[in-house]
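Figure 3 (text version): structure tokens given as input.
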């Protein structure tokens, strides 16, 4: 009898099995025929509640049929502490083994996913609550060791209540063992995707399961550091169950996405194919169409740049890319919707997109932390980076100050300066101050024809210089914020033309013109060797600025003095 057959009672933990082989969903009380429920991967068809799966069931779901080869098959738990509570530890192990057909909570091995070789780690809650003892830690570490040696991506699926008390400090030290194994895998620049199911708590979550490049939560999964009983017993605090659902963690920037089980396998296969594929395909190299000669006044340009109808980043995402997987959160505080980002397919090439959403939205520190995280992911997987600038500036309020807005902007600039990936930046609307530049340091900088880029908004400049923000338009000509002005100053490298009347008149045509420019410049950037690219990037910014040397300044003063005397 297979583990999944032997663990049928555990698979239905949380659901009521009635005599006529029906199951009752604990969330909506809908009854369903048991076989249909299992075939639907234990997901309620009425409300979407996700029931538990065993470790073996997860492997069967993800791995191509007949491809799974177990790692660490002949590793068995021992009883190093001779532990006994209401039952001896060895008795608990025997009971769990008889119930599940497993020797411990972890199942790991090599497999294929849609033909792609992977390593899968599955931790099942049905074996002693999925707790991590010596065997689980060793199986996880061995799996990462094999994956690192064979240069394979890793997928882990966690359902755990934490560390295994019956093994004491030996259990706790498995956190360090597994984290070290993940660290070596990460340094080899290999993909790791962590799937967090219900429940995901304690030591496994606070070690290997939180270190994935991409963290995916199941709908409704409870995820956290310490279980509710531990929190209540330690600090007498009652934590509402909904406060630690996957959806709340997504809001707080701790995971990248919440993915329904029925879509998970396809999404994992797509993610692995994009980040481990052969990238020998050539970029289109046709030069973009020349920008039209229409020259608008600064007042006209700023009006077009700020139009509510102007296409924003999400409008271009749907038009530029055949596939986009948005990644959320800074893994620290929150997920800022003013900055979006994720993996995208650009004309058959995987890239990393990081973009400001524009309009009235002003990025917060967590938005820049998310951007930095995505930049480093791009570097790890050798992906070109496309950044889209469109913001009036970073949010200047006190809450942003307290969360380190200046530091996060500085760190974003520092990361981009040395990032080992080609970077292409396009200003698509309003580029305001350091909040815009934080995404704007790049190898090539382009501006759409009716966009603006400025050290400060005209209103802000007027408030400082004239103490009257309403006089901003008076300063527009002197601020040189149009694309044509900045091209002449050498700040940008090119202008992306827009349809007649502006991008808002024909967003599809605007997207085609933008795509044309992006593909051309990426075709040139990706041909440059990395050392040369980084050298040229640093030289570019080292050379920006206008100043006079001492001899020039003295000559100007002398000429002015002579001219004054002759008058």
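Below: residues designed for each position.
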């Amino acid at each position: 009898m297979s583990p999944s057959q032997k663990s049928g009672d555990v698979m239905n933990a949380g659901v009521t099995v009635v005599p006529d082989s029906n199951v009752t969903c604990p969330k909506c009380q809908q009854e369903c025929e048991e076989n249909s429920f299992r075939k639907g991967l234990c997901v309620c068809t009425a409300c979407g509640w996700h029931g538990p799966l065993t470790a073996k069931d997860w492997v069967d779901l993800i791995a191509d049929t007949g491809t799974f080869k177990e790692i660490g098959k002949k590793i068995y738990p021992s009883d190093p502490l001779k532990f006994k509570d209401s039952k001896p530890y060895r008795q608990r192990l025997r009971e769990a083994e008889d119930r599940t057909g497993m020797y411990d909570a972890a199942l790991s091995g090599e497999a294929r996913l849609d033909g792609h070789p992977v390593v899968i780690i599955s931790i099942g809650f049905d074996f002693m609550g999925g707790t991590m003892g010596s065997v689980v830690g060793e199986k996880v570490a061995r799996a990462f060791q094999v994956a690192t040696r064979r240069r394979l991506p890793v997928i882990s699926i966690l359902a755990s209540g934490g560390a295994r008390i019956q093994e004491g400090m030996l259990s706790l030290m498995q956190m360090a063992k597994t984290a070290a194994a993940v660290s070596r895998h990460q340094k080899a620049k290999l993909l790791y995707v962590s799937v967090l199911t219900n429940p995901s708590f304690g030591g496994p979550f606070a070690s290997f399961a939180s270190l994935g490049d991409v963290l995916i939560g199941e709908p409704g999964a409870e995820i956290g550091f310490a279980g509710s009983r531990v929190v209540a017993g330690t600090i007498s605090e009652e934590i509402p169950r909904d406060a630690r659902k996957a959806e709340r963690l997504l809001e707080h920037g701790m995971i990248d996405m919440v993915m329904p089980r029925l879509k998970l396998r396809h999404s994992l296969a797509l993610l692995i194919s994009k980040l481990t594929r052969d990238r020998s395909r050539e970029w289109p190299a046709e030069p973009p169409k020349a920008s039209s000669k229409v020259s608008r006044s600064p007042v006209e340009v700023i009006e077009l740049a700020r139009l509510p109808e102007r296409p924003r980043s999400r409008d271009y995402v749907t038009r530029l890319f055949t596939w986009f997987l948005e990644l959320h959160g800074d893994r620290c505080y929150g997920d800022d919707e003013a900055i979006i980002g994720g993996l995208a397919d650009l004309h058959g090439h995987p890239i990393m997109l990081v973009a400001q959403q524009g309009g009235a939205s002003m990025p917060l520190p967590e938005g820049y932390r998310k951007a930095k995280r995505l930049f480093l992911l791009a570097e790890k997987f050798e992906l070109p980076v496309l950044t889209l600038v469109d913001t009036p500036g970073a949010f200047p309020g006190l809450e942003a100050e307290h969360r380190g807005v200046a530091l996060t902007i500085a760190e974003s600039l520092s990361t981009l300066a040395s990032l080992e990936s080609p970077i292409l930046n396009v200003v698509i609307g309003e580029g305001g101050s350091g909040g815009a530049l934080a995404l704007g340091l790049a190898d090539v900088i382009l501006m759409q024809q009716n966009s603006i880029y400025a050290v400060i908004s005209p209103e802000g400049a007027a408030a400082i210089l004239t103490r009257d923000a309403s006089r901003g338009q008076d300063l527009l000509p002197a601020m040189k914020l149009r694309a044509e002005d900045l091209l002449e100053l050498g700040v940008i490298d090119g202008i992306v033309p827009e349809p007649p009347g502006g991008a808002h008149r024909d967003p599809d045509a605007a997207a085609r013109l933008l795509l044309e420019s992006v593909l051309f410049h990426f075709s040139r950037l990706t041909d440059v060797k990395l050392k040369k690219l980084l050298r040229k990037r640093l030289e570019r910014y080292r050379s920006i600025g206008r100043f006079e040397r001492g001899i020039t300044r003295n000559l100007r003063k002398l000429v002015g003095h002579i001219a004054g005397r002759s008058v």
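The chain is about 40% helix and 20% strand.
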